[in-house]
Design goal:
Structural class of chain A: mainly alpha
Helix content of chain B: 40-55%
CATH class of chain B: Alpha Beta
Distance between the termini of chain A: 16 Å
Strand order of the largest sheet of chain B: 2-1-3-6-7
Number of domains of chain B: 1
Helix content of chain A: over 70%
Oligomer: heterodimer
Mean pLDDT of chain B: 92
Largest sheet of chain A: none
Radius of gyration of chain A: 24 Å
Number of helices of chain A: 19
Strand content of chain A: under 5%
CATH superfamily of chain B: SGNH hydrolase
Structural class of chain B: alpha/beta
Low-confidence stretches of chain B: 343-349
Largest sheet of chain B: 5 strands, parallel
CATH topology of chain B: Rossmann fold
Distance between the termini of chain B: 74 Å
Chain lengths: ~500, ~350
C-alpha cells in the first residue's frame, strides 16, 4: 500500500480508530500487527509468507543464539539465520542478476549456456526487513541485547507498517522496547505526526512526482547525447527526485508512527548540505549507513588495521551498499564511486593531519595562522562551507548518474554530455521544465543549507502557530492541485 | 502550550485547504467544467477485467481515440443488447493490446480493432507507450491499487477539478506559454474544453468545445502538427510485412480459441482524411491488412451511409454523429454475422 494513495487514508483512519479504542495493549498490538500484514499483503498476498518466515526463523534463532555458549553451535545458528535471510534476498533480488552474469562468464569461457530466463517478482521492501531482522540476529550473536520473549512484539518489530517497506531500518533497541508499554500519542504528538505526514506527501506528490520525475525521466530516457544544460538539469532533477521521494517516504513513516504514539529515528538530515562524503553518509539514509558501519565496516576491521586496510574496508562497505540497492553493476559502480570519494577524503584528511603534526614542531606563534591558510585559502568560514557543500553536491550528482541510468552506455553518454564531451548534444527539455528543475533545486539547496544544523521539530517549535498553519495549509493545497501521483516510491524496488 | 499551538496550526491548515478546495472546484465549475473521469491506465485496467464474457454478450474494442469518440456505447448497448468493453487508448496503436489479448488464453470473445493508420502502422515507441504501460499495469496491479481506483473514481464522479489532463499542477504550469529552444519538442496542450470521459471509457466532445471556433482551430492546428506534420515516412516493404505477420499471429491465436476479430476504419474528414489517404493508400495498407491477416473489415468509405460525416476537428465525430454512426456500424457488423441474432434487422437508424 502506498502512502500516496486513497486507500491508505482509509487504512490509516481504521488503524488509528482501533488503536485508540479502549481495549488492552495486547489487542492494540495485535491490531498493529494485522495492519502490517494487510499493508504488505495488498501488494502481493503470498509474500506475507516471507515476512512470517523471516519473523519465525529469527525469533527462534535469536533466542537460541543468546542462550548458546558453544562457539560452534553459535556459528551454526548464525549461519542458519544468515542462510535463510540472505538466501531469500539472494533468490528474489539477485537470482536473475547471478544467472545473467554466470551466462556472461560462461560465454567468455566459450561455453554456450542458455538457461530459461528466471521469472522472479521482487517482494516489496525485502532488503529493508531482511536487514532489520539480520540486525536483531547479529545483536543476539554479540549478546548486545536480551532476546525478545514475546512473539507478538517481535512480529510487530518486523512488520510495523509505517516503516515496513522502505525504512528507516530500525534497530532492536530503538523499537522493541516501545512495544513493552501502552503507547498513545499526545495531542501535540498526534498533530505533529499529521504535519510530518503532510510534509512527506508534499515531498513525494508535489516535488518528486509532480515537478521532477518528468524532466529526470526524459533526460535519462534520451537515446542521444544531450546539450550540457539539459544533461545537468536532468541529473539535478533526479537528485531532487530521489531525495524527495525517499525522504518523503521516511517523513511519512515517522509521522504515521508518531500519530500512533511511536518514535522512529531520523533517516535524513539535509544531506545536500553535507561537507564531504563522511558527512554525506551521516545525513543520507542514516539507518542504512549506520547498519553497514556497525555490521560490516567495523567487523571488517574498520579503521583499526592501518590506512590501506581502512580504504579497502571502506570500498567493500560501499560496494555492498551499492549492491544492496539493486541487482545491477550500475548500482555497484554507484557504491564504488562513493567508496572512492570516501577513500580520497580519508587520504586527504591523513595528509592534513600529517601537515598539522609537522606544524606543531614549527614556531608556536605562527601555528594558528599556518593551519588556517593550509586548510583552504578562504578566510570566511561560511563561504568555505558553502563552497565545500556545493563541491560535495556536484560530486554526488555524478554518482546519481550511475544510480539512475538503466545501463552503462546511458551513464557514459550522459556524463559525456554533462562535461562538454558531446558538442552536438541535443536540446531536450522545454523551458518550463528547466524552470521547474532550477527553482526546486535552488530551493532544495537553500533549505538544506539553512537547516543543516537544525530539524523540522526545532523549526516548528521556534515558529509562530500561524506560520506553521499557513505553511501546512499551502502544502495541502499543493497536494490537492497536484492530484494523485500514483507513483510508487523509488526505494520500494530495493 | 505546544498542544494549543499545534491545534491552532492544524485548524488553520485545514481551513486553508478546505476554503481552497471549495474555491477551486467552484472556479472550474463556473467555467463550465463538469466532473469527468481520468482516462488513465487504472480505468483501462478496470475495463480490461470485463473482457471475459460469453461471446454473445460483449464486444471488446481496441484502437486509438477515434473509436472512443465514434462509438456511442449507450446506443450500442441499447440496440445490440451486448456490452461494449472499450479498451482503445488515445494516441496509441492497438497492436500491443491486440498481442496482450491474443496471449490471454482466457479471452475467446469478439474483438473490434479500430484502425487509425498513422498510429496503427507506426513503429514510433511514443505511439505504443500508453499500451505498454496500461497492459503492464493491468497484469501487475495490486489489490490496494484496485481499491484506490474505486475510491478515486467515486471522487472523480463528484469533483470537476480532479482531472489530471486539465487541472493538475503540472498541466497548469505547462499551460504557461513560454518559448522553447530550437529543436525542443513540447507536447501541445489540447483545449481544456475538448472532451469528457465517461466511466465506460467513452469519450465525447463537449458542447463548449463545439461552440468555440478558437478551440476548434487550436485542435486542428495540433493535428496538423502532430499527425500530418510527422516527418517519419510510413512503414513499407519488409518492415510492413513483419508488422502484418505479427498482427496475423495475434488474430490467429484469438480465432484458434473460438474468438472473432474484425478491423474497422471509422470516419475522419477534411485535411486529416486527405493526409491519411495520401500517406496510407487504401490498397497498400487497409486492403493489405485484411488480406495478410485473412480478416474481415469495415471501412467507412465503403458504405455510402457512413462516408459523409464531417468531423468538427477533422479526426473525431461529434456526439450526435457518433450516435448515428454507431447505428450504422451495428448494422454493418450484423451483416457480417457479428451478432448471435441478426440484429441488423432490428436496426433502423
Amino acid at each position: 500500500m502506498l502512502f500516496n494513495s486513497y486507500v491508505f487514508i482509509l487504512f490509516l483512519g481504521l488503524a488509528l480508530a482501533i488503536h485508540y479504542l479502549p481495549v488492552s495493549w495486547k489487542a492494540k498490538k495485535a491490531n498493529l500487527l494485522l495492519a502490517g500484514y494487510l499493508f504488505y499483503a495488498v501488494w502481493n498476498p503470498p509474500f506475507v509468507l516471507l515476512l512470517w518466515l523471516s519473523t519465525v526463523v529469527d525469533f527462534i534463532i535469536g533466542k537460541q543464539l543468546h542462550q548458546a555458549e558453544n562457539p560452534a553451535k553459535r556459528k551454526a545458528l548464525l549461519a542458519a539465520s544468515l542462510g535463510v535471510n540472505l538466501g531469500m534476498l539472494g533468490f528474489f533480488k539477485y537470482g536473475g542478476f547471478l544467472v545473467d552474469n554466470f551466462v556472461l562468464l560462461a560465454s567468455a569461457a566459450g561455453i554456450d549456456f542458455h538457461p530459461a530466463a528466471p521469472d522472479i517478482i521482487l517482494p516489496v521492501g525485502i532488503s529493508f526487513y531482511t536487514f532489520q531482522t539480520l540486525s536483531y540476529t547479529l545483536d543476539m550473536y554479540r549478546k548486545k541485547h536480551a532476546p525478545e520473549r514475546s512473539l507478538l512484539d517481535f512480529s510487530l518489530y518486523v512488520s510495523f507498517f509505517p516503516q515496513l517497506v522502505a525504512g528507516p531500518i530500525v534497530r532492536t533497541g530503538d523499537l522493541l522496547p516501545q512495544f513493552k508499554s501502552p503507547r498513545q500519542a499526545t495531542s501535540a504528538q498526534f498533530m505533529h505526526g499529521s504535519l510530518l505526514l503532510s510534509l512527506g506527501l508534499f515531498m513525494k506528490i508535489v516535488l518528486a512526482d509532480g515537478l521532477l520525475s518528468g524532466p529526470a525521466d526524459q533526460v535519462f530516457g534520451a537515446p542521444m547525447a544531450l546539450n550540457i544544460a539539459d544533461a545537468w538539469l536532468g541529473v539535478l532533477a533526479f537528485s531532487g527526485q530521489i531525495f524527495f521521494d525517499f525522504a518523503g517516504y521516511t517523513t511519512c513513516a515517522i509521522g504515521v508512527a508518531a500519530m500512533l504514539g511511536f518514535s522512529l529515528p531520523d533517516n535524513f538530515r539535509y544531506p545536500y548540505a553535507a561537507v564531504g562524503f563522511s558527512d554525506f553518509w551521516r545525513r543520507w539514509h542514516i539507518s542504512l549507513s549506520t547498519w553497514l558501519r556497525d555490521y560490516l565496516y567495523i567487523p571488517l576491521g574498520g579503521n583499526r588495521a592501518g590506512k590501506v586496510r581502512t580504504y579497502i574496508n571502506l570500498m567493500i562497505t560501499m560496494l555492498v551498499g551499492g549492491l544492496w540497492h539493486g541487482a545491477s553493476w550500475t548500482f555497484v559502480a554507484w557504491g564504488g564511486l562513493h567508496g572512492l570519494y570516501l577513500t580520497v577524503e580519508k587520504w586527504l584528511e591523513s595528509l592534513r593531519e600529517k601537515r598539522a603534526a609537522r606544524l606543531t614542531q614549527a614556531e608556536p606563534a605562527m601555528q594558528p595562522l599556518i593551519v588556517e591558510k593550509s586548510a583552504l585559502p578562504m578566510s570566511n568560514p561560511k563561504v568555505k562551507t558553502l563552497l565545500l557543500v556545493l563541491l560535495t553536491f556536484l560530486l554526488v550528482n555524478v554518482t546519481w548518474v550511475f544510480f539512475r541510468a538503466q545501463d552503462f552506455a546511458t551513464a557514459w553518454r550522459l556524463l559525456a554530455s554533462m562535461f562538454g564531451l558531446a558538442p552536438d548534444g541535443a536540446a531536450l527539455l522545454p523551458t518550463i521544465d528547466m524552470i521547474k528543475v532550477l527553482v526546486v533545486t535552488v530551493g532544495l539547496l537553500l533549505t538544506h543549507f539553512l537547516m543543516r544544523n537544525t530539524s523540522v521539530p526545532e523549526l516548528i517549535h521556534k515558529s509562530k502557530w500561524w506560520t506553521v498553519g499557513i505553511a501546512w495549509g499551502l502544502m495541502l493545497v499543493a497536494i490537492i492541485v497536484s492530484q494523485k501521483s500514483g507513483g510508487s516510491f523509488i526505494y520500494f524496488q530495493f | 502550550m505546544e498542544t494549543t499551538k499545534m491545534a491552532r496550526a492544524a485548524l488553520l491548515s485545514l481551513a486553508i485547504a478546505l476554503v481552497f478546495l471549495l474555491a477551486w472546484e467552484s472556479f472550474w465549475r463556473s467555467k463550465g467544467f463538469i466532473p469527468t473521469y481520468n482516462d488513465d491506465k487504472a480505468l483501462w485496467a478496470m475495463k480490461r477485467t470485463e473482457i471475459y464474457q460469453p461471446s454473445g454478450s460483449a464486444t471488446v474494442f481496441i484502437g486509438s481515440s477515434r473509436i472512443k469518440f465514434n462509438l456511442d456505447i449507450p446506443t450500442w448497448e441499447k440496440i445490440t443488447g451486448e456490452k461494449a468493453v472499450q479498451l482503445a487508448l488515445v494516441g496509441t496503436s492497438p497492436i500491443l493490446t491486440l498481442q496482450d489479448l491474443a496471449d490471454d488464453e482466457k479471452f475467446a470473445g469478439k474483438l473490434v480493432v479500430d484502425v487509425t493508420e498513422p498510429l496503427f502502422f507506426s513503429q514510433n515507441p511514443a505511439f505504443h507507450q500508453s499500451a505498454k504501460e496500461s497492459v503492464a499495469y493491468y497484469h501487475q496491479q495490486t489489490p490496494a491499487e484496485k481499491v484506490s481506483t474505486a475510491i478515486g473514481l467515486a471522487l472523480e464522479s463528484q469533483l470537476a477539478f480532479l482531472e489530471e489532463r486539465r487541472f493538475s499542477l503540472n498541466t497548469l504550469l505547462n499551460d504557461i506559454p513560454l518559448p522553447n529552444r530550437p529543436g525542443v519538442f513540447q507536447f501541445p496542450a489540447f483545449p481544456k474544453t475538448f472532451e469528457w470521459n465517461t466511466l465506460n471509457r467513452q469519450t465525447y466532445m463537449s458542447d463548449m468545445f463545439l461552440a468555440d471556433s478558437a478551440a476548434l482551430k487550436r485542435q486542428t492546428d495540433i493535428w496538423a502538427m502532430l499527425i500530418m506534420g510527422n516527418p517519419e515516412p510510413p512503414i513499407a516493404g519488409k518492415e510492413l510485412d513483419e508488422v502484418l505477420a505479427g498482427i496475423k499471429t495475434s488474430v490467429d491465436k484469438i480465432r484458434s480459441r473460438g474468438g472473432r476479430v474484425i478491423f474497422v476504419r471509422t470516419p475522419s474528414s477534411g485535411p486529416m482524411e486527405a493526409g491519411e489517404q495520401q500517406a496510407f493508400p487504401l490498397e497498400q495498407y487497409w486492403s493489405r491488412l485484411l488480406d495478410a491477416t485473412d480478416t474481415p473489415g469495415i471501412h467507412y468509405k465503403d458504405h455510402p451511409e457512413t462516408a459523409h460525416y464531417i468531423c468538427p476537428e477533422w479526426s473525431h465525430l461529434s456526439p450526435t454523429d457518433a450516435v448515428d454512426y454507431t447505428h450504422h456500424l451495428v448494422k454493418q457488423l450484423g451483416e457480417k454475422g457479428w451478432f448471435a441474432l441478426n440484429k441488423s434487422d432490428l436496426v433502423n437508424p
